């Protein structure tokens, strides 16, 4: 790990969204793959992780003895020059001083509020390219949670009059799941609220064509009823 010089305005930052990165202020810290996986596992878990569970999850192909040795090696690598992992009885947890972007993003899923800064976190993928089953389980949860949060965020920003960031949130939801009707409907409603019916029609028609091509389905009556007056006027 990179040698660090402490400064009062710096903290340890662990990035899991859009890729793994550990940094101290603006200084990146090199972490070997095994230690990366350990940090990610502890950051994704709210409660301390028993050592045996961590070893089995991180080194599933190894014997229990070998996995335990790998875990001890990773802990040794993470012990200097700063504290990253804390032992609680026979379990491990991430030090409370480490700022984790995924945890901040999860707070937005629980209460999106009307914070434009949430858009960047909510539209990011969790550890892209990581194939471990314990990562995939968290990624599946994150995919659903952020979609719901982006739609709620868009509606709250719109109600506050911030249509620019409301559009960004709705568009991020559509880009995350192009077949999600509620995300398209949120974007259509924003176009209508902006007095841009032509763009609302284009958005609806694009979604309808995609839905037909991908699933052979039609949009629900809910969104069709919203668009019916405009579709009549275009005939």
The neighbouring-strand order within the major sheet is 3-2-1-7
Question: Which shape, going by the Cα principal axes?
Answer: elongated
Helix run count: 10
Main sheet specs: 4 strands, mixed
CATH level 1 class label of the domain at 12-100: Mainly Alpha
List the helices and strands and how they pair.
Layout: E1 12-15, E2 21-24, E3 27-29, H1 33-44, E4 49-50, H2 51-58, H3 64-77, E5 85-88, E6 91-94, E7 98-100, H4 101-110, H5 118-122, H6 133-159, H7 163-176, H8 181-193, H9 197-215, H10 221-233
Structure, described:
It contains ten helices and seven strands. It is of the alpha+beta class and 235 residues long. The protein has a four-stranded mixed beta sheet with strand order 3-2-1-7. The protein has a three-stranded antiparallel beta sheet with strand order 4-6-5. A hairpin with a 2-residue loop joins strand 2 and strand 3. Helix 2 packs across helix 3, helix 7 runs antiparallel to helix 8 and helix 8 runs antiparallel to helix 9. The radius of gyration is 22 Å and the shape is elongated. The protein starts with 11 loop residues before the first strand and ends with a helix. The N terminus is likely disordered.
């Amino acid at each position: 790990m990179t040698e660090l010089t402490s400064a009062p305005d710096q903290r340890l930052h662990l990035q899991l969204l859009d890729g793994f990165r550990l940094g101290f202020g603006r200084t990146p810290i090199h972490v070997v793959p095994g230690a990366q996986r350990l940090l990610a596992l502890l950051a994704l878990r709210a409660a301390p992780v028993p050592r045996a569970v961590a070893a089995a999850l991180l080194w599933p192909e190894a014997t229990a003895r070998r996995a335990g040795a790998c875990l001890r090696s990773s802990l040794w690598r993470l012990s200097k020059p700063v504290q990253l992992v804390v032992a609680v009885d026979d379990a491990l947890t991430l030090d409370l001083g480490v700022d984790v972007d995924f945890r901040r993003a999860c707070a937005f899923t629980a209460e999106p509020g009307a914070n434009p800064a949430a858009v960047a976190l909510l539209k990011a993928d969790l550890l892209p390219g990581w194939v471990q089953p314990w990562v995939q389980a968290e990624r599946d949860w994150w995919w659903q949670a952020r979609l719901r949060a982006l739609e709620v965020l868009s509606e709250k920003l719109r109600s506050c009059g911030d249509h620019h960031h409301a559009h960004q949130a709705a568009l991020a939801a559509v880009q995350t799941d192009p077949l999600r009707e509620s995300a398209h409907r949120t974007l259509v409603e924003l176009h209508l609220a902006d007095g841009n019916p032509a763009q609302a029609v284009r958005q609806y028609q694009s979604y309808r064509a995609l839905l037909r091509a991908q699933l052979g389905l039609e949009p629900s009556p809910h969104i069709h009823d919203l668009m019916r007056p405009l579709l009549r006027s275009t005939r």
